[in-house]
Write a structure and sequence with these properties.
The chain is α/β, with parallel strands linked by helices. 55% of the residues lie in helices and 8% in strands. A hairpin with a 7-residue loop joins strand 8 and strand 9. Helix 15 crosses helix 19 and helix 16 runs antiparallel to helix 17. The longest helix has 37 residues. The chain is globular. 45% of the residues are buried. The mean pLDDT is 96.
Length: 479
């Protein structure tokens, strides 16, 4: 066993433990540390046969076990706990060493930490890690930001432990400076929220409108997973829907309380989009849908409200409707990714990150929760046109949306008629129609704002900013 570790992991809950094991399995000597020393000992005792670990009890022992430049991975809760660990270890490090935060940190915190540590000569890497505990162990999608020179040292190690796409490419890239990695991870999670909401709406439509059982819907999802909707989330949806609860004999989905939880990254995606002025309506509706699901009292008080009378579909009608739902799901999914990549573009411009969208799509092809076959095509679209204004501007995606739009509209109409809530499908369609509209009611909105607040407006026929004097003769003046 080596007495010097190439990398260290502190914080040995499930994610940290599995990431440490992943490094060790790939031939690296890993120093491990936890505030509770018994957890460190348990990891070494249970998994020491997987590779070389150096168990340490104190911060000083941990740092001393690392070769220079030291690479120290923090896997603790975001926020104050992360700051506390940084404050503990930074005084023990030397210029050129690096601290890597692998938690779900807010990118603004990462920017702050990177700036402070840079002044001490310490490199700080904000590293988004997606794939859950299985991904951390077997190969996640990794989104590191921070100084480029840090990636020169750290990158080869991350490439070795990361997931690999079907073409063998490692699902990791240097995303950009300071908080870029955690920003992209945040948007990844926002897209994940939207994707899951759309899948949930498809399930509800197939059940409440088409009349299929969970087991039948599982088969439908399995068939979809053989085509253009091939993705991890579609795959696991089929597994969840086919599962039968052993205690009750009921479909598992029927014994789960219908109140969805969230950890915050979806909310951050929407909040930052508002700050950047980027419309992410599909992601926002997914966040709000989870929030609404948790208001049990409000929902109970509203359950008696009037609604339409459901109309049962015949067998052939149900099958045709299921095909239309597949079209609506695919089209809405494209919109979700369109909105997410738009936010990444806006963030990159705002903070000077110069993020390569093609590389982002490439590293999401494996390991992460939103991995999907069509990310190959998204990567190709951005590689071909790095300045692509929107995924909907890509000829292939535009053609697919055109082919899906009639069914998409019919599904939203059917949902409204049957009283099935589909905020994700409807918001995606509204976004699509707003983009393609020749004129929007924003002209009226600006007129109203000028009327009550003299907020001014611009004209379509000449340059300048104008204000109408709304009393008397309503004359127009240049503002």
């Amino acid at each position: 066993m080596s007495t010097s570790a190439q990398i260290g992991v502190t914080g040995l809950a499930v994610m940290g433990r599995n990431l440490a094991r992943n490094f060790a399995r790939n031939g690296y000597t890993v120093a491990v540390h936890n505030r509770t020393a018994s957890r460190t000992k348990a990891l070494v005792d249970e998994f020491g046969g997987e590779g070389d670990f150096i168990g340490t009890e104190t911060a000083e022992e941990f740092v001393a076990a690392l070769e220079r430049p030291r690479r120290l991975v923090i896997m603790v809760k975001a926020g104050d706990p992360t700051d506390a660990v940084i404050q503990e270890f930074a005084p023990l490090l030397e210029p050129g060493d690096m601290i890597i935060d692998g938690g779900n940190a807010h990118f603004a915190d990462t920017r702050r930490r990177e700036k402070a540590l840079r002044e001490q000569g310490i490199h700080f890497v904000g590293m988004g890690v997606s794939g859950g505990e299985e991904g951390a162990l077997h190969g996640p999608s990794i989104m590191p930001g921070g100084p480029k020179e840090s990636y020169d040292s750290l990158g080869p190690m991350l490439e070795k432990i990361s997931a690999k796409a079907k073409d063998g490419a490692p699902c990791v890239t240097h995303v950009g400076p300071d908080g870029a990695g955690h920003f992209v991870k945040m948007v990844h999670n926002g897209i994940e929220y939207a994707d899951m909401q759309l899948i949930g709406e498809a399930y509800q439509l197939l059940r409440d409108v088409a009349g299929y059982s969970p087991a039948q819907i599982a088969d439908i999802f399995r068939s979809w997973n053989q085509g253009r909707l091939d993705s991890y989330l579609i795959e696991i949806t089929a597994e969840v829907l086919s599962h039968v609860d052993t205690a009750s004999g009921q479909p598992f989905v029927d014994v789960v309380v219908d109140q969805a939880e969230q950890k915050g990254t979806g909310r951050w995606t929407v909040q930052i989009a508002l700050d950047l002025g980027v419309p992410v309506s599909g992601i926002a509706e997914a966040v709000f849908a989870r929030s609404l699901s948790g208001h049990a009292g409000l929902r109970a008080a509203s359950r008696g409200l009037a609604g339409p009378k459901p109309v049962a579909l015949g067998e052939s009608e149900a099958a045709a409707f299921a095909d239309r739902v597949e079209q609506a799901l695919y089209a809405s999914k494209i919109v979700s990714y369109t909105q997410g990549f738009h936010e990444i573009t806006a963030g990159s411009e705002e903070y000077g990150w110069d993020i390569d969208l093609g590389k982002v799509a490439s590293i999401w092809r494996g390991g992460c929760i939103i991995r999907a076959a069509f990310l190959d095509r998204i990567r190709a679209a951005y590689d071909a046109r790095p300045d692509l204004p929107s995924l909907l501007s890509d000829e292939t995606f535009a053609r697919e949306i055109a082919g899906a739009q009639d069914d998409w509209r019919e599904v939203v109409i059917a949902a409204v008629r049957q009283g099935v809530p589909t905020p994700g499908f409807a918001a995606a369609l509204a976004y699509y129609d707003a983009l393609r509209a020749a004129r929007l009611p924003a002209a009226l909105t600006q007129g109203q704002r000028d009327f009550f607040g003299a907020h001014t407006y611009r004209r379509v026929d000449r340059e300048g900013t104008f204000h109408t004097l709304w009393g008397g003769d309503r004359s127009e003046i240049s503002a």
